[in-house]
Amino acid sequence: MRDIHLGTLVKRKMKERDISINEFADAIHCDRTNVYNIFKRKSMDVQLIVRISNALNYDFLQYYHQGIKNQNNVNPRLEIIVQKYDDEWVVEKIKEI
């Protein structure tokens, strides 16, 4: 994932969707301070990205997928696994929230 700052993208999507800090914090089950910390993060763990994606109705995981697919040294087997299970896994994680 080169040159992608997820925190900046999250902040931009929030503004596009006209969602306040309080609304967003409630939607992802955290406080306002954590939201501001999210804006500063270049990367995040998958569970947090899934919660944010669900709250903003936008697939932030796509940036990780692009990073995997764009690397020349990716194990072809890993790429197949990502393609095969990715969508099913994301859907299940979103249902869990």
**How much helix is in the residues?**
over 70%
What does the radius of gyration come to?
14 Å
Mean pLDDT over the full residue set:
79
Percentage of β-strand residues: under 5%
Gross morphology is globular
Structural class designation: mainly alpha
Reported for the largest beta sheet, the result is: none
What features would you describe in this structure?
There is one protein chain. Helix content is 70%, strand content 0%. The chain has 6 helices and no strands. Helix 1 packs across helix 3 and helix 2 (21-27) packs across helix 3. It is globular, with a radius of gyration of 14 Å.
In short:
By secondary structure, the protein is mostly helical. It contains six helices and no strands.
Core attributes:
mainly alpha; 6 helices; about 70% helix
Write the layout of secondary structure elements.
Elements (H helix, E strand, L loop, with lengths): L5 H11 L4 H7 L4 H9 L5 H11 L5 H9 L5 H21 L1
Helix pairs in contact: 1-3, 2-3
